[in-house]
Design goal:
One of its GO terms (molecular function) is hydrolase activity. This is Glycoside hydrolase family 3 C-terminal domain-containing protein. Belongs to the glycosyl hydrolase 3 family. Keywords: Hydrolase, Signal. The chain has 990 residues and is of the alpha+beta class. It has five domains: 307 residues, Glycoside hydrolase, family 3, N-terminal domain (TIM Barrel); 171 residues, Rossmann fold; 112 residues, Trefoil (Acidic Fibroblast Growth Factor, subunit A); 114 residues, Immunoglobulins (Immunoglobulin-like), CATH 2.60.40.10; 171 residues, Sandwich (Jelly Rolls), CATH 2.60.120.260. The chain has 18 helices and 51 strands. The strands form 13 sheets. Strands 38, 40, 41, 43, 46, 48 and 51 form a seven-stranded antiparallel β-sheet that branches. A hairpin with a 6-residue loop joins β40 and β41. It starts with 15 loop residues before the first helix and ends in a 15-residue tail after the last strand. 55% of the residues are buried.
Length: 990
């Protein structure tokens, strides 16, 4: 064991900065480098033990054995109860500490949770991990969970890490796709979700995402140092996602060698490399090489080490004692945590529709139906269930039940005989043979949507998987693991035949000479199979439902199939077999309750139109069945509300890779259609009426707080909970504003006949939006509307007020360069990196693409414009006024071919007719031209005393650093070095 070494750094009475500085002076450079990996090396001579970042704890401790499993994150958020979410975080934190006490090396105290990526698109495979499509609500819930994880003491219980920075909302090609963020989307939507937890001190660490942002790997984003670290006065630890550093020279090919890439990452703000698991040698070697080549300085290493050590100090590692020293294994899954899991699951249920069927009375018999009715699912980041209360189990405690899984049973036939499975519980290879018992040839066919199926052998109740040798074996409890090897596609063949294609490998199944089924190397060798129906799951379920008082059908997703990390969904539809099951059951028994258990929304349009009751929750953890029964039988009012829009079809969504929610009218804030279920929706067993809206003022200033008061009354016959939601809408603006935006909420519980005055406060400063003309937030002088109601679309009261804020003047093109990314509108362009280290630019992606700058005040006239550009193929740019197609041409220029896309040059052209206020369009006449900024000079005008001058660019010197022209327009491009290349790294830039 490492013996503590006396020193200032071990004195908890001293300021944290002094303690860290003292320890830094004691470390050698080699010892410092050893702290920049996920597995931080011990320093025995100073008594420092090893330390590991990264314990998964998204909705309970994960991956380390049985621990309390709470509802998925999106389910926790649907409670709209930050206090409850904080309790769950605290319970999770205690269990992390307990596991750490037992196994310090296996369970670290730096937890990688919560996930605060806004749920922009419900097709995202990791939808279950986030909280909401609204950034403010995401921030509230993320802060609550992180606060619970960290505790309230000066010493951290655990060290929460926000994931995943930034604009990460697609799994498809996630390591190579770029999320293009115009400035308003960046500041108003994406950054807004991350800021609260860091600014409040609830989160102390940050994980960059795999994707690129505006063409630059997120791990290298200048926003980490320039913006995020400015939100807090504390040191912030930045850790990479697993194996992301290698992408810089691998999949992303952003740098030519690891030393340059790793140096760039450290200088961009990365403090801990999660690479090569517990083998840091290669990472440390790359960092040493970066130091030797001058790409990295020891001061850069010291900065990163300070961030890494800060978390360890705040966890109390160098203190004589911490408030958490008494936590033991007894806290794991203790009765209090089980009760909390039940309460969280109960409050997460959202009643989507109810025509009087719920709550259930005293039914004599309930038919419990569905392939999720008697099982609980573990997702990739959930813990191991210590026990499982399924829907069937929970309902069986309340009344007589009968159960039907509702899954089709089939037999598969190949040339030579039926496919048979081993009857032994351990399973065996699937073989084609004659003479087998019928049961050995039967398989239950599970439809998980998206064309993904799983086969369970009736012979032993185990699922068909593919072993390492490629042989199909019935030996698994179900789809599981990072590489799910238990799912197949049924590819059609002529005359009703089919071929099995293994989803994980993409390989078809062939019939080997020995009669076994195995994966084929040659697609043409796929075995041609015929599927024989043995039992219709829908018919069996309908028969059961017909004899019951009520049918409860549980449908949904498998968290590891058709929508998970590495896999987005293609659509929003229920799996076809599950849709057919619901229809059959409802036809047999009109008293059918549809219960959806899923980590994301489904387009259940027919259910909404036809069924009397629809209920949703995320996968609810170990107490799901009890929670469901509590809600169905009315022991608890359905308290949940949706934190996402449920659409009628994926056709209502923009392209998965289009992150500009403003331009695409996305999320509840901008969506103009009629959703299936709106953001904030959720019914109650009670009835509520709203009245008496009062605003504290009719006119307010940016520094004021507007108080909103109203009365809510329960006019029903049952007690219930209401979530009073406050939205605003700006009614006049220079820019496109949200149709509605959540500003606050309050949960109230009322008994029949009870009423209560609800008071909500709105900081007028929160109405600010990002002004692209001046690069800052602005509260605009404008009228606004207050909207109060039960959801974003169910508004019960409204009021008006006026903000005496700023009036945004026309753009002044002469006082500073106009960034191309700071345009007001665009078409056919993509945002990209102007240089590897910093700066955004715009690249034309199609002939005729354009960017627009509204209300540019050219004054008496502009003499010329210098554009900072590059293109490997060359091209032409045209500057037009007021219209991109038919507006008068103010200027045009040619861009010569450059050696690479970072070879920025300044190209100037004279302007004609650019006087007064106009919309300016930069038109890309061909694709591939990149523009980073525009610099204008004003036409010379007589000055007092007869002198003549220009506004904008001094005639003698130009504008330093912007590649601006002199007073005489050059005949050709002026070469300009790419800005932002790290010192000593010029040879690494390509």
């Amino acid at each position: 064991m490492n013996e503590p070494v006396p020193g200032t750094f071990r004195d908890p009475g001293l300021p944290l900065a002094a303690r860290i500085a003292d320890l830094l002076t004691r470390l050698t450079l080699e010892e410092k480098l050893g702290l920049l990996h996920q597995y931080q090396a011990a320093v025995p001579r100073l008594g420092l033990g090893s330390f590991r970042t990264g314990t998964e704890a998204l909705h309970g401790l994960a991956w380390l054995g049985p621990a309390t499993v709470f509802p998925q994150a999106v389910g926790l958020a649907s409670t709209w109860d930050p206090g409850l979410v904080r309790e769950v975080g605290a319970a999770t934190g205690d269990e992390v500490v307990a596991f750490h006490r037992k196994d310090p090396a296996g369970a670290g105290l730096n937890v990688w949770a919560p996930v605060v990526n806004p749920l922009r698109d419900p097709r995202w495979g990791r939808n279950e991990e986030g909280y909401s499509e609204d950034p403010w609500l995401t921030g509230v819930m993320g802060t609550a969970f992180a606060r619970g994880l960290r505790g309230d003491h000066r010493v951290l219980r655990t060290a929460p890490t926000l994931k995943h920075f930034l604009a990460y909302n697609n799994e498809t090609d996630r390591c190579v796709t770029s999320s293009n963020l115009p400035p308003r989307v960046l500041y108003e939507y994406e950054l807004a979700a991350f800021r609260p937890a860091i600014e409040s001190g609830a989160a102390v660490s940050l994980m960059p995402s795999y994707n690129l942002v505006n063409g630059r790997p997120a791990m290298l984003s200048p926003l980490i140092n320039d913006v995020v670290r400015g939100w807090t006065g504390d040191d912030l630890l930045v850790v990479s996602d697993a194996y992301a550093p290698a992408n810089l020279t691998g999949l992303q090919d952003y740098y030519g060698d690891p030393a340059a890439a790793y140096a760039a990452a450290v200088r961009a703000g990365l403090d801990s490399f999660t690479q090569d698991d517990d083998r840091p040698a290669d990472t440390l070697g790359h960092l040493r090489a970066a130091l030797e080549r001058g790409l990295l300085g020891e001061d850069d290493v010291d900065t990163a080490v300070r961030h890494a050590l800060s978390v360890r100090f705040r966890l109390g590692e160098f203190d004589p004692a911490t408030p958490y020293d008494d936590i033991t294994e007894e806290v794991v899954n203790r009765p209090e945590h089980q009760a909390l899991a039940r309460r969280a699951a109960t409050r997460s249920f959202v009643l989507l529709k109810n025509e009087g069927l719920l709550p259930l009375g005293r039914p004599a018999k309930v038919a419990v139906i569905g392939q999720l009715a008697d099982t609980l699912m573990e997702d990739w980041y959930s813990g191991t269930l210590p026990y499982a209360v399924t829907a069937r189990a929970g309902l069986s405690e309340r009344c007589a039940t009968e159960f039907c899984e509702g899954v089709d049973r089939v037999a598969l036939h190949a040339p030579g005989g039926p496919v048979t499975a081993a009857e032994d519980f351990g399973g065996g290879p699937l073989v084609v043979r004659q003479g087998a018992e019928p049961k050995a040839t039967w398989f239950d066919l599970f439809d998980w949507g998206g064309g993904a199926y799983a086969l369970r052998a009736a012979a032993n109740g185990r699922y068909v998987s593919v072993g390492d040798d490629g042989v199909l074996v019935n030996d698994q409890p179900g789809p599981n693991g990072w590489e799910v090897r238990q799912t197949f596609r049924l590819d059609e063949r002529p005359r009703g035949a089919l071929a099995l294609r293994h989803i994980s490998t993409g390989r078809h199944v062939e019939l080997a000479p020995d009669g076994t089924l195995r994966l084929a190397d040659d697609p043409d060798a796929a075995a041609v199979l015929t599927l024989e129906p043995v039992l219709s799951g829908a018919q069996a379920a309908a028969g059961l439902a017909a004899g019951a008082d009520v049918a409860v059908v549980i449908v949904g997703d498998h968290p590891l199939v058709n929508g998970r990390e590495t896999e987005d969904r293609a659509d929003l539809a229920l799996p076809p077999a599950q849709e057919a099951l619901v229809r059959a059951v409802h036809a047999a028994n009109p008293a059918t309750v549809l219960v959806i258990s899923s980590g994301y929304p489904f387009a259940v349009t027919s259910a909404q139109e036809e069924l009397p009751a629809v209920l949703w929750s995320a996968h609810g953890g170990q107490e799901y069945g009890h929670a469901l029964a509590d809600v169905l039988f009315g022991n608890a009012d359905p308290a949940g509300r949706l934190t996402q829009t449920w659409y009628r079809s994926a056709r209502e969504l923009p392209d998965l890779f289009d992150y500009d929610i403003i331009a695409t009218d996305s999320t509840y804030m901008y969506y103009r259609g009629t959703p299936l279920y709106p953001f904030g929706h959720g019914e109650s067993y009670a009835r509520f009426e709203y009245s008496g809206l009062e605003l504290s003022a009719g006119t307010v200033a940016p520094g004021d707080v507007l108080t909103v008061r109203l009365t809510v009354a329960n006019t029903g016959s049952r007690p219930g909970e209401e979530v009073v939601q406050l939205y605003t809408r700006q009614r006049r603006s220079r820019v496109k504003q949200p149709l509605r935006r959540l500003r606050g909420f309050e949960r109230v519980r009322l008994v029949p006949g009870e009423s209560r005055v609800v008071t909500l406060e709105l900081k007028v400063a929160d109405l600010a939006f990002w002004d692209v003309t001046r690069g800052r937030f602005v509260v605009e002088d404008a009228p606004h509307k207050v909207l109060v109601g039960r959801s974003s679309r169910d508004i019960r009261l409204s009021g008006r007020f006026t903000v005496t804020g700023e009036r945004i003047p026309p753009r002044d093109p002469y006082t500073s360069p106009m960034g191309a990314a700071d345009n007001d509108e665009y078409d056919g362009v993509v945002l990209c990196d102007a240089a590897r280290v910093t700066g955004d630019a715009v690249r034309g992606a199609a002939p005729g693409a354009w960017i627009a700058f509204r209300d540019v005040d050219f004054g008496a006239g502009a003499a010329g414009c210098a554009l900072t550009v590059t293109s490997t193929e060359g091209g032409v740019l045209t500057l037009r006024l007021d219209d991109p197609l038919f507006g008068p041409v103010a200027g045009a220029l040619s861009v010569a071919p450059a050696r690479d896309r970072y070879d920025l040059v300044s190209v100037a052209c004279p302007l004609a007719g650019a006087a007064g206020v106009h919309d300016l369009y930069v038109v890309f006449e061909n694709e591939g031209v990149t523009v980073s900024e525009l610099v204008f000079t004003e036409a010379a005008v007589p000055a007092e005393g007869g002198a003549r001058g220009t506004r904008g660019i001094p005639a003698a010197e130009g504008r330093a650093g912007h590649g601006a022209p002199s007073a005489q327009w050059p005949q050709g491009p002026v070469r300009k070095a790419a800005r932002g290349v790290p010192r000593g790294a010029a040879e690494a830039a390509r």
